[in-house]
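This section describes the prediction task in plain terms. A model, or a person checking by hand, is given the sequence of a single protein chain and must write out its three-dimensional structure as a string of tokens. No templates, partner chains or ligands are provided. The sample shown here is typical of the held-out split.
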Amino acid sequence: MSENEILKEIKDYFDIRELVDKETYDKYGEKAWQFMCPRLLHTMLVIRKELNLPITANDWHNGGKYDERGLRSNMCDIVKSKKSLYLSAHTMGRALDFKVSGMTSPDVRQWLVANASKLPYPIRLENKFVKTGKEISWVHLDVFYNEKNSKVYLFNV
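The expected answer:
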């Protein structure tokens, strides 16, 4: 799929406000799509179509509390609080934190591992918190790539 085809089709499933922080949307509006990595958009498009279930990331535009689950600009609280260099997948438009309606986050991760061959690019998934060993209650997916990683790389934070 070309980048233009991906961008055209993903708009059937996601509003840009779900993928960027409020400050970015307020400044760029619909032009904020330019900040999202096409590999991430293509991957999310495949997941959304395969699962055929609603996916929720940011919900600030509907009065919700989530506003930093996609692209994080330097105005976001998480980024502003950093005291040293901070180059996360979120700051580069290559990551999304989300939930899938009707599925637990561990079930989504299991589905992604089982269906890795359907994904257009290798992905990384946060899996568990190191300190507690508890599974993460949302799905963090990013398209950062490292040659040694498998198609779906689970990592602990």
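For orientation: Helices lie at 3-10, 22-28, 38-51, 77-80, 105-114.
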